[in-house]
Amino acid sequence: MTRHFLKDTDLSPAEQAEVLDLAVELKAAPYSRTPLAGPQTAAVIFDKTSTRTRVSFAAGIAALGGQPLIINPGEAQLGHKESIADTAQVMSRMVSAIIWRTYAQSGLEEMAEHSSVPVINSLSDDFHPCQILADLLTIREHRGDVKGQTMTYFGDGANNMANSYALGGVNAGMHVRIAAPADYQPAAEIVAEAEALAAQTGGSLTVTDDPVAAATGADVLVTDTWVSMGQDSAGRVDEASPFTKFQVNQELMNLGNDPIFLHCLPAYRGKEVTAEVIDGPASVVFDEAENRLHAQKALMTFLLER
């Protein structure tokens, strides 16, 4: 059966840990596994622009023995002249994996339904699961075993990053806190799924509009831009923004348990995070960015070898 990775919980807790173990192995020995030897081709489709996703997948596919086929916006018939279902059936006869950075989660689900090769969500409006794998790898490197640690996300609690932190973090047995304004908190179905998962993993999910309480005792503080790609920025970044009090600054960092700071980048210093924090000694954002490469290589290897 072809395995896909469309959201964080498409890996069981044990499988997620296996992928992270493999990422550690591949970081130490980058060319030790070559599931794409041939070279086989992996298609990397972009409906949204990218830096880290583009570079990490292209470099990772090459390191696994394959050849990346980068398809930029407007360079294929996908979704306008040709259906997603037809595209999936055509592409999966020619490539060994399909990686798609897109908008609607439903498109990824349709692609996977009709594809005979693994489909990977490299970002959608609902989830960013590849980023969470990289973040978990980074936490493991700097804090040890992720299970039982407390990770607090500050900002827009209803966006794709918050959704993936809630599900991916709890999947790893972490205690996840989402600190967000009352009108920007996770959807009820995300909360319910995370809570059901917590019963299996020993993790937990807490949603609050109190940034001070959310930061207190946390091992990891993380944020994201207040305006996700493609969103209207009106009212989100000015002084009256509902997110202003959720800015990660040194005062919040001081409340944590000697925490590290994560951000998926690009970051806007002076908005969601201060320069003092992101450029300070607790920031591991560039390790986190590099770990996109290693985590995604591990994920592709896991899916392809299945």
How is this structure best described in words?
The chain is of the alpha/beta class and 306 residues long. It has two domains: 13-128 and 292-305, Rossmann fold, CATH 3.40.50.1370; 131-288, Rossmann fold (3-Layer(aba) Sandwich). The protein is built from eleven helices and nine strands. It has helices at 13-28, 52-63, 84-91, 105-114, 129-143, 160-171, 188-201, 211-215, 250-255, 275-278, 285-305, and strands at 41-46, 67-71, 97-101, 119-123, 150-154, 175-179, 204-208, 220-223, 260-263. The protein has a five-stranded parallel β-sheet. A four-stranded parallel β-sheet has the order 2-1-3-4, with helices on both faces. Helix 1 (13-28) crosses helix 11, helix 3 crosses helix 4 (105-114) and helix 5 packs across helix 11 (285-305). The model has no long low-confidence stretch (mean pLDDT 95). Pathway: Amino-acid biosynthesis; L-arginine biosynthesis; L-arginine from L-ornithine and carbamoyl phosphate: step 1/3. It is an enzyme of class 2 (transferase).
